[in-house]
Amino acid sequence: MTCQARSSYITSEILWGYRFTPVLTLEDGFYEVDYNSFHETYETNTPVYSAKELAEMASRAELPLTWSVSSKLDQHAELETEEEEKNQEEQNERNGDVANLENE
């Protein structure tokens, strides 16, 4: 059977960060619909801003819209490498000072 439905919502009816409670269960090989919880919702972990708002903020700040875990790990590794090089240079300077003292 062909069925069509059309809906419109007002602002107060839209819940950001919520999902509908599942109403279908499988009982003895048959699906059962629980109409008592048909309109129930539950809160989910959702970003505070919509994708559109995030894109607008990113364009205003001229920041990349997306990042990956691997890119963040690469940045972290680069910082660690720079710190290690700086520490090595400081160690070499101290070693050089000790060597100069021994030569005097």
Automatic annotation (TrEMBL):
InterPro entries cross-referenced by the UniProt entry: Ig_E-set, IRK_C, K_chnl_inward-rec_Kir, K_chnl_inward-rec_Kir3.2, K_chnl_inward-rec_Kir_cyto
Stored SUPFAM superfamilies: E set domains
Localization terms from the record: Membrane
Domain annotation Inward rectifier potassium channel C-terminal: ranges: 1-58
Coiled-coil residues: none
GO cellular component assignments: monoatomic ion channel complex; plasma membrane
Any Pfam family matching the protein: IRK_C
Membrane topology recorded in Swiss-Prot or TrEMBL: Multi-pass membrane protein
Biological processes, Gene Ontology terms: potassium ion import across plasma membrane; regulation of monoatomic ion transmembrane transport
Keywords: Ion channel, Ion transport, Membrane, Phosphoprotein, Potassium, Potassium transport, Transmembrane, Transmembrane helix, Transport, Voltage-gated channel
Catalytic activity annotation: K(+)(in) = K(+)(out)
GO molecular function: G-protein activated inward rectifier potassium channel activity
Presence of the UniProt keyword Repressor in the record: no
Domain of life: Eukaryota
Region (Disordered): 74-104
Protein family per UniProt: Belongs to the inward rectifier-type potassium channel (TC 1.A.2.1) family. KCNJ6 subfamily.
This protein's name: G protein-activated inward rectifier potassium channel 2
Organism annotation: Toxostoma redivivum
